[in-house]
Design brief:
The complex is a heterodimer of chains A (about 200) and B (about 160). Chain A is an alpha+beta fold and about 200 residues long. Chain A folds into two domains: about 30 residues; about 160 residues, Glutaredoxin, CATH 3.40.30. The chains are: A alpha+beta (about 200), B mainly alpha (about 160).
C-alpha cells in the first residue's frame, strides 16, 4: 500500500515540480533574467512612460514626442572605460548606416544615461562627439529626476551594478521601439545589424 | 553570489532541517505512508532546490520582494524539512543516487559558472560568477573525497530499507 501511495505522491510532486519549473522559466525558454526580459518584451510590448529627458543640447523631450519613428535605444554612462565604451562607437556607426531612414525622419537613435548625476549636458555632448556623431538622428539624453530614472530602468529592464572600480556593469543591449511608442524587442548590444534589421524590415511593412 | 547561492540558501535549508523535530509525531506518521524510503520527500526537496538554482530565480529574489519571501519560506519548509524527515528513511540506493546527482550538479554548475563568458545573473559581476563556480567545483571535489572515505573506512550505519 505504501509503495503505491509513495508512487502516487511522487508522481504528483513531479508533475507539480515540472509545472512550477515551466512557469518560472517561461516554458523552459528563459533560465536567466536577461533572456526572460527579451521574451517578455517580444511577447508583451511595453508602452514607454512620458518622462522628461534632457538632451545634450539642453532641450527637454520625452518618448511620446518621438512617436511615428522607430527608435533604437541604449543605456549608457559616459565614464565607461570598458567594453561599454564601444556602445558609443556602435551607435556612431549605426547612425552612418541608417543615414537615409534618419534623413527621411523614420529612425532616431537614443542613448539614455543611467548615471544622470554625473552625466550632465556637457558630458553627453562630449560622449557623442568622441563617438563620431554626425549631428542628426542621435539623441543623448538624461532623465532629469531620480524617480524617472527608476521608472525607465524598470520598463526597459536595465540593471546596473557597481563594479567596485567607480564604474558600473550593466546589461547593455539595444532596445527597439516601434512607431507606436512601444518597446518591442531587445537585441545584443554588439549586434547592431539585428537592431538595424528590425527597423528596416518594419519600414517595408 | 557565493553568499546567496552557497551560504544563505544552504543555511535556510539547514534551518528547515532543524525545525523538523518540532513537527508532531502524528503529522510525520500520517505522511510516512506516502513517503516510503523517503522518496517523495527527497523528490520534493530536490525539485524545489532546482528552482532556486536558476540564475533567473536568484536575480528575481534580489529584485522582487514576493520572490524573496518565497525563497525564505520555501527553502526551509520545502527543502530542509522534507530532507530531514526523509533522509533517515532513505536506503543505501536512494541516498547513493541522490548524492551522486548532487555532486554531479555541483560539477556541472561549477563548470558552467567558471567558463561562461556571459553574466548569468544581471545582479552579479562576472568575477563573482567565476568565483562561485570555483567554490562549487571545490564543494564537488570535497563531497567526492568525503563520500569515498566514508565508503572505504566509515562505519556502515545505513539501516535496511524500511
Amino acid at each position: 500500500m505504501s509503495v503505491l501511495r509513495t508512487l502516487l505522491a511522487s508522481l504528483l510532486i513531479l508533475a507539480a515540480g515540472i509545472a512550477v519549473l515551466a512557469a518560472t522559466t517561461d516554458g523552459f525558454r528563459a533560465f536567466t533574467s536577461e533572456t526572460a526580459r527579451r521574451i517578455d518584451v517580444r511577447e508583451h510590448p511595453r508602452v514607454l512612460p512620458p518622462v522628461p529627458l534632457q538632451t545634450a543640447q539642453g532641450r527637454i523631450i520625452d518618448f511620446p514626442a518621438l512617436r511615428g519613428r522607430w527608435l533604437l535605444v541604449d543605456f549608457i554612462y559616459t565614464r565607461c572605460m570598458t567594453f561599454c565604451s564601444v556602445q558609443g562607437t556602435e551607435f556612431g556607426q549605426l547612425q552612418r548606416r541608417l543615414a537615409r531612414p534618419i534623413e527621411a525622419g523614420r529612425v532616431v537613435l537614443v542613448s539614455v544615461s543611467f548615471d544622470p548625476s554625473r552625466d550632465g549636458v556637457a558630458q553627453l555632448a562630449a560622449y557623442q562627439q568622441r563617438s563620431g556623431d554626425r549631428g542628426t538622428g542621435w539623441l543623448a539624453v538624461r532623465p532629469t529626476n531620480p524617480s524617472d530614472l527608476d521608472t525607465l530602468m524598470r520598463v526597459f529592464g536595465v540593471t546596473a551594478i557597481r563594479d567596485g572600480l567607480g564604474g558600473y556593469v550593466h546589461n547593455a543591449a539595444i532596445a527597439v521601439v516601434d512607431p507606436h511608442g512601444r518597446l518591442v524587442a531587445i537585441t545584443d548590444w554588439d549586434a547592431p545589424r539585428e537592431a538595424e534589421h528590425y527597423v528596416l524590415r518594419g519600414q517595408v511593412q | 553570489m557565493v553568499l546567496q547561492m552557497l551560504v544563505q540558501i544552504p543555511l535556510l535549508a539547514l534551518a528547515g532541517w532543524w525545525l523538523a523535530p518540532l513537527l508532531t509525531r502524528r503529522i510525520v506518521d500520517t505522511f510516512s505512508t506516502w513517503n516510503r524510503s523517503g522518496i517523495s520527500g527527497i523528490l520534493l526537496a530536490s525539485l524545489v532546490a532546482v528552482v532556486w538554482m536558476l540564475p533567473r530565480a536568484l536575480d528575481a529574489a534580489l529584485e522582487t520582494s514576493w520572490v524573496a519571501l518565497a525563497k525564505f519560506t520555501s527553502v526551509p519548509l520545502l527543502v530542509g524539512m522534507p530532507l530531514a524527515i526523509s533522509w533517515p528513511r532513505a536506503g543505501f540506493v536512494v541516498r547513493g543516487v541522490w548524492l551522486v546527482e548532487a555532486i554531479a550538479m555541483a560539477f556541472r554548475l561549477g563548470w558552467l559558472y567558471t567558463v561562461s563568458p556571459a553574466r548569468l545573473c544581471s545582479n552579479y559581476l562576472l568575477g563573482d560568477q567565476r568565483q562561485t563556480g570555483k567554490v562549487m567545483l571545490a564543494i564537488g571535489v570535497a563531497a567526492c573525497l568525503l563520500l569515498a572515505w566514508k565508503l572505504v573506512w566509515g562505519h556502515n550505519r545505513i539501516e535496511r530499507v524500511r
